[in-house]
Amino acid sequence: MVKLTKIYTRSGDQGQTGLGSGQRVPKTHPRVEAYGAVDETNAFLGKAVISAKSTSSKMSSLLEQIQHDLFDVGADLCTPIPENEVAGSALRITSQRVQDLEDAIDMYNADLESLKSFVLPGGSQLAADLHVVRTVCRRTERNVLSLIEVEPDSTSILTLQYLNRLSDLFFVLARVANDEGKTDVLWIPGKNRTDSCDSNSK
Prior knowledge:
Shape: elongated
CATH topology: Hypothetical Protein Ta1238, Chain: A
Low-confidence stretches: none
Number of domains: 1
CATH superfamily: Cobalamin adenosyltransferase-like
Mean pLDDT: 90
Number of helices: 6
């Protein structure tokens, strides 16, 4: 159980922080960037949870479950995997959670309107919030990939897979929040262009 007795410790005043293993690293270390981005994703997700509570209790419950998962992902990334790690000795994201996201994507996507163009972020407030957290989650995925590229043996690939599926789920849920995709705002290529090939050729 986590127990916080003091908020500031001054231990990071020289620009370093402690990992779950006890190792001290710069706050700009790729591992810190990775789990910090997970925390940012969770913060934006909190806003979507509030929007969902007024429109869909089922979705808000799912999003709250994901918030707990994201803390698990952050804990996983915060603690480098040592050689010969004993199973269960550290909190790690599991393949089952990745599968659970895929199942949720398939379930929610089944009744959506077919897409004929890319979707613009927006529509309802909940959809807009979900699109924001989707893009933050994509950036977080890239941060984790950067970490895996430099520390592949001590970083779980499941963290990357989880975040990849999660951003997909946020996209699907944003469409659900727009009346099952019926009120999606679709991209119209070149909508605001006033020139044309004909005028350019004159």
